[in-house]
Amino acid sequence: MSKQFAVIGNPIEQSRSPELHHAFAAKTGIDLNYSKRLAPLDGFEANIQEFFAHGGIGMNVTVPFKEQAFAQCQVLSERAKIAKAVNTLWMKNGILHGDNTDGQGLVDAIRALNWPLENTNILIIGAGGATRGVIYPLAQAGAKKIVIANRTLARAEQLVADLQDAVAQLELQAISLEHLAGEFDLVINATSASLSGDALLLPEALQFNYAYEMAYGKPSSFLDQAKARAVPTSEGFGMLVGQALESFSIWNGIKPDLKDFL
Fold first, then answer.
1. Mind listing the pLDDT tens digit for each residue in 99-132?
2. Which residue is catalytic, options 3, 27, 66, 144?
3. Which of 131, 230, 236, 247 could covalently link to 190 via disulfide, CB atoms 3.0 to 4.6 Å apart?
4. Could you give the domains of the chain?
5. Closest alpha carbon to 58 in 89, 96, 97
6. Residue 243 is assigned to a ligand binding site
C-alpha cells in the first residue's frame, strides 16, 4: 500500500508538488502517492481532517491556507512559530504537527548555487509572508545583517519588531523602497512584482553581488536589471524544490540531494 500524501490549496492546478515528490520517491525507492486537493475557501479544516482520517501521512499547504494551517496545529516547529504560517502537516499519535520549510528551501537553493550566506549582508525586497518565512532560516545559515525594504515602511518596521527577538544574533533593519541604496552581498525579491508584471526599479546607488527571485517561470524585471549589471542571478525554482525536499525529509526520514533535481 502506497503512503498517501497531498498538496492542498485554492487554486491548485498549477502546483508542481506531485511531480517533485514522485521524483524524490523514485530516487529513494519509497512507495508513495502524492495528489492535489482543491479545497473550497471555507472548507480547509474539513478537508485536512478527512485526509488524515483516511490514513494520509503528510500534506503540503499552499495559498491561501498557510495561516489557517498554522492555527490548526497543536505542535509547531520553531520556524513555523516565527513564520506564523505552515506549509507542511503531519499527524502523529492523533496530534497535528506543522512546520514551515519555505525558508530552508531558499537556504538550500542558495547553497546549491554555491553563493555565500555566512557573514553576509542581505537585502530582501517586500515585507509579506514570504519574507517573514525566510528570515529565521537565513539567520541560522549565518547571515550577519538583513535589511527589509518595502513600499509601505510601517509594514517592514512591524516585521522587524516581530522578528527581532527570534533572531537576536542578526542585525535587522527596515527601509522604504525609495531609500534603496548601499552595498549588499545578496538581494532577494520577495514581492509579487514579477507575477503582476510591475516594474521594480533598482537604483544605481544599490550595489549587490547576487540576485535571487523567489518567483519562477515568469518574466522578471528584477532579474533583467541584475543581468544587465552582469550579476549572477537565479529564479525561485530551486527554492520550490528545496522546500519540497525538506517536507519529504520530515515525512520519510531521508533527504535526497537538491542538485539532482535542478
1. 999 999 999 999 999 999 999 999 999 999 999 9
2. 66
3. 131
4. 1-100+240-258 (3.40.50.10860), 115-230 (3.40.50.720)
5. 89
6. yes
66 is catalytic: yes
The pTM for the full model equals 0.95
What is the SS3 assignment for 7?
A: strand
- pLDDT at position 196 over 70: no
Mean pLDDT of 194-204: 77
Sign of CA dihedral 201, 206, 207, 211: negative
**pLDDT higher than threshold 80 for residue 193:** no
**Secondary structure E strands in the chain:** 3-9, 32-38, 58-61, 75-76, 88-92, 95-99, 121-125, 145-150, 171-176, 182-189, 206-213, 233-234
**29 labelled ligand-binding:** no
Cα–Cα dist 61/54, whole Å: 18
CA distances from 114 to 30, 47, 216 (A): 29, 40, 19
Would the annotation count 74 as a binding residue?
no
Structure-derived torsion over alpha carbons of residues 71, 75, 79, 81, reported in degrees to the nearest 10: 40
pLDDT band for position 261 (cuts 50, 70, 90): very high
pLDDT at 195 exceeding the cut of 70 = no
Q: Are 150 and 213 in contact (CB under 8 A)?
A: no
Residue 1 has pLDDT above 90, yes or no: no
